[in-house]
């Protein structure tokens, strides 16, 4: 039917053995293996300002919550594993000595906290007033999902300002 057009250069460029990292004992797979192990390049997003969280949404309904803490970028899945509300609307905890494993985000609805470094769930943020009342109702309604962890992602930038993401 015709001649073959390409020479397979895309396949070779994604092959880890062609990257010169032959001594690596950890094999990255899928999108994590792209761009010399930095992961998938993210385009069309704006980075959160220092000390803030920003929500990102990509094709296929993929959402992420990205935080900027002291110039370092962290990201988690966009919805709370417990109540499915938007984590990027939550409270960023990064300078409170009463917490371990900082930075963390507290879900605005159920108050469950998640560590940005590994996605592990933690103790709930104590809230007063109406927010505390709603958080108590949400905890009761979602008791079965109380111990689910969030997916965590490593966000990095290169010298050209490109942003990369890979799942941890």
Provide a brief overview of the structure:
With 168 residues, this protein is an alpha+beta fold. 14% of the residues lie in helices and 26% in strands. Mean pLDDT is 77; it is low at 6-25.
Provide a descriptive summary of the structure in words.
The structure is a single chain. The model is unreliable at 6-25 (pLDDT under 50). It contains three helices and ten strands. The strands form two sheets. It has a six-stranded antiparallel beta sheet with strand order 1-10-9-4-3-2. The protein is globular. By secondary structure, it is an alpha+beta fold. Helix content is 14%, strand content 26%. A hairpin with a 2-residue loop joins strand 3 (63-69) and strand 4. The chain has helices spanning 9-14, 34-37, 129-141, and strands spanning 40-42, 52-57, 63-69, 72-77, 91-93, 104-106, 113-115, 121-122, 152-157, 163-167.
Strands, helices and their partners?
Blueprint: H1 9-14, H2 34-37, E1 40-42, E2 52-57, E3 63-69, E4 72-77, E5 91-93, E6 104-106, E7 113-115, E8 121-122, H3 129-141, E9 152-157, E10 163-167
Antiparallel strand pairs: 1-10, 2-3, 3-4, 4-9, 5-6, 6-7, 7-8, 9-10
List keywords for this structure.
168 residues; alpha+beta; six-stranded antiparallel sheet; four-stranded antiparallel sheet; 3 helices
Shape descriptor: globular
Question: Helices and strands: which structural class?
Answer: alpha+beta
List segments where confidence is low: pLDDT < 50 over at least 5 consecutive residues.
6-25
Helix content: 10-25%
Assembly type of the chains comes to single chain
Number of H- or I-type helical stretches: 3
The total of beta strands comes to 10
Query: Taking all residues together, what is the mean pLDDT?
Result: 77
**Spatial arrangement of strands, main beta sheet:** 1-10-9-4-3-2
């Amino acid at each position: 039917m015709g001649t073959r057009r390409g020479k397979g250069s895309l396949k070779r460029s994604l092959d880890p053995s062609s990257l010169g990292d032959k001594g690596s004992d950890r094999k990255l797979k899928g999108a994590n293996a792209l761009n010399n192990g930095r992961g998938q390049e993210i385009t069309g997003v704006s980075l959160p300002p220092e000390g803030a969280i920003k929500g990102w949404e990509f094709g296929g309904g993929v959402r992420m919550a990205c935080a900027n803490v002291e110039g370092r970028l962290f990201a988690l899945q966009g919805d709370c594993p417990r109540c499915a509300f938007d984590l990027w609307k939550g409270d960023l905890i990064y300078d409170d000595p009463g917490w371990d494993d900082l930075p963390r985000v507290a879900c605005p609805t159920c108050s469950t906290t998640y560590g940005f470094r590994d996605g592990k769930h933690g103790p709930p943020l104590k809230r007063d007033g109406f927010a505390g009342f709603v958080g108590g109702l949400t905890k009761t309604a979602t008791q079965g999902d109380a111990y689910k962890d969030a997916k965590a992602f490593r966000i990095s930038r290169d010298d050209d300002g490109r942003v990369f993401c890979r799942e941890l």
